[in-house]
Design a protein that fits this description.
single chain; alpha/beta; 4 domains; 15 strands
Length: about 600
């Protein structure tokens, strides 16, 4: 009877008291009053525990940001935990600041992949799902109707599919850009008739567990408003109380999985098994209703098969009964740290599905609708190895047998391993395998992804900060671009310098407090280029000169000076997203640096 928290608790207590008082006398009255007191204490305990968790995690992972900013990151991270976002991806969705319209963070996903400005709609063919998550995270003493009113107003303006951002000067550019990505994705994929889900998450660090009925009514208004804007969408509004946030924080990802099978063939360090489709579906969803992303290495997870392949697999699942599924499908390859068989089950430690993503996805989608137990079989190959280098060789070899772009196998390259090892010497952790160090609890300020490293080298050595800003997810998609950035001809120290400097620049700009997230994002790579060029006294720095920069000698004051110089140029040209993604700002800064070094402006590429 208490599952709903304090809602209606007074009436329930009163009624319960009169029903039992006749039989139990004054004693039961004292029990009821004391039970209320206990629940109040529990509510206070949840707030205190949440405060402790936040303070501890902030100190361990990101001590340089404010408690309020960390709470926004924490809330987004817990709600989106199953989507396996990196620190950079989580921070990219934060839009909080002046004129944020009551919205603190916004994330848009297509088929569980985070959407960037340069997303490629061509790879989405059928069964498209678009998910929009809107966050409001407050440190106040309770939930407020006025906060929900702000979200209603903001979404009424910015979720209209034909919205013109220039007509809404009351919102900052980060907020407008975030909603614009959703509108763009929805409109470009309209012909695919995507499934659309909109979730609003309202968290409050010091709220009571009691949610007033007026707040539920106000949420009803918000849901109705969103349904008017997006009639085909599924809309959900969530109140995240301290206890709800603690429950999300306690949720851990399974590291050991069990896979039932019907037939097996054992070999040294591996097994080949035939599993019933229903059992395999249970395995890849970890007993839940959603595909478990923990089972997929990031370099393989991004692979999108052709429409024909997906259609054939789904057709086989739906229509073929005379020939077993395993005979018509290449099956799945799983790489695990350890594997053992007992009682018709494979126990797998830290398993990764390194081949067969399309098969797994289609099986998961097939069972997304209620179906009877399916006795058809799927072929699963399991290889056990705890050696990182061996595992990476297997991943690359297996996937190279398929039609797959080399850019998706970068994590296994020797140079990526070398960069990872070198960065440790300067206190950085190179996330060549997505979220490897995040899952180990390393601080966000010390983790740098392959993508961010590519953007940094592109800015510093190739003098293309505009491209680094404009193409965050496609920058090294092609081999020609990749080889320019990650070259065996470069000193490995170059990557240490670029990684350490971009992290230092990000920290200084974030601590400044006067720069909006949008402006920080727009100028960060221009600042890096300017810092590097100034240090080596060359408008077009070369890799050898940059690799010799002494990081410890680069003082914060020097970087602040470069930030101010870049910001002045940026603002003088209008200070827009389009400017940051074009060549005009790059050319101006390069001209200014050339003149200051008393060198002629070199011919631009």
């Amino acid at each position: 009877m208490w599952s709903g928290g304090f809602r209606g608790s007074c009436k329930k207590i009163k009624k319960f008291y009169f029903c039992l008082h006749r039989c139990c006398g004054k004693f039961i009255g004292r029990v009821i009053v004391n039970s209320c007191r206990v629940r109040l204490i529990m509510s206070g305990n949840a707030q205190q525990l949440l405060t402790d968790v936040l303070e501890q995690q902030k100190a361990e992972r990101n001590p340089n940001i404010s408690a309020e900013d960390f709470f926004e990151i924490f809330t987004s991270e817990q709600v989106l935990k199953d989507l396996d976002l990196s620190y950079e991806e989580i921070e990219s969705g934060i839009v909080d600041g002046e004129h944020d319209g009551g919205v603190d963070a916004v994330y848009c996903f297509i088929n569980d992949e985070l959407v960037y400005d340069d997303f490629d709609q061509a790879k989405y063919k059928k069964n498209v799902a678009i998910d929009l998550h809107i966050f409001q995270a407050k440190s106040a003493n309770g939930f407020s109707e006025s906060d929900i009113n702000k979200i209603i107003s903001t979404t009424n303006h910015l979720l209209k599919l034909d919205a013109n951002d220039s007509l809404f000067p009351q919102y900052n550019n980060s907020v407008k850009s975030a909603f614009s990505r959703f509108r763009k994705a929805y409109r470009l994929l309209a012909s695919k008739f995507p499934e659309v889900n909109v979730s609003v998450h309202y968290s409050c660090k010091r709220a009571d567990e009691k949610i007033h009925k007026n707040l539920y009514e106000k949420c009803g208004e918000l849901e109705k408003s969103l349904n008017v804007l997006l009639p085909e969408a599924t809309v959900k509004v969530n109140f995240l109380t301290p206890s709800a946030l603690l429950a999300l924080a306690r949720k851990t990802k399974k590291q050991t999985f069990e896979l039932k099978f019907k037939h097996d063939l054992s070999a040294e360090n591996g097994y080949v098994v035939l599993c019933e489709l229903s059992d395999f579906d249970f395995f890849i969803k970890a007993g839940t209703t959603n595909l478990s992303l923990d089972l997929f290495e990031s370099n393989v997870r991004d692979f999108q098969g052709s429409t024909e392949v997906n259609s054939e697999i789904q057709s086989t699942l739906l229509n073929e009964s005379s020939v077993d599924f395993w005979a018509m499908n290449n099956g799945v390859t799983i790489l695990a740290g350890r594997a053992s068989i007992a009682g018709g089950k494979l126990t797998l430690e830290n398993p990764q599905i390194v081949n067969g993503l399309q098969t797994s996805t289609q099986i998961a989608r097939y069972f997304s609708e209620p179906r009877p137990i399916d006795r058809r079989l799927v072929l699963v190959k399991v290889i056990a190895s705890e050696d990182d280098e061996t595992r990476d060789k297997i991943i690359k070899a297996i996937n190279s047998q398929n039609s797959i772009q080399a850019a998706m196998l970068r994590a296994t390259d020797k140079i990526q391993r070398d960069v990872e090892q070198a960065l440790k010497s300067v206190g950085l952790f190179y996330d060549r395998r997505k979220n490897y160090y995040k899952n180990q609890g390393k601080p966000a300020d010390s983790i740098i992804s392959i993508g961010l490293m590519a953007q940094s080298v592109m800015s510093a050595i190739l003098q293309r900060p505009d491209q680094a800003r404009a193409r965050p997810s496609t920058l090294i998609k092609e081999n020609s671009e990749y080889n320019k950035v990650f070259s065996e001809n470069f000193s490995i120290g170059l990557y240490c310098v670029c990684g350490a400097l971009i992290k230092k620049i990000d920290r200084i700009m974030r601590d400044d407090g006067t720069l909006s997230p949008r402006d920080r994002n727009n100028i960060r790579f221009y600042v890096l280029y300017s810092v590097v060029a100034s240090l080596v006294r060359k408008a077009k720095p070369d890799a050898d000169s940059v690799s010799k920069i002494e990081i410890a000698a680069v003082k914060d004051e020097y970087i602040i000076e470069r930030i101010r110089a870049v910001l002045t140029s940026y603002n003088s040209l209008g200070g827009t997203d389009r400017l940051a993604k074009g060549t005009k700002l790059r050319d101006l800064i390069q001209d200014q640096l050339s003149q200051s070094f008393k060198h002629p402006v070199l011919e631009r590429k």
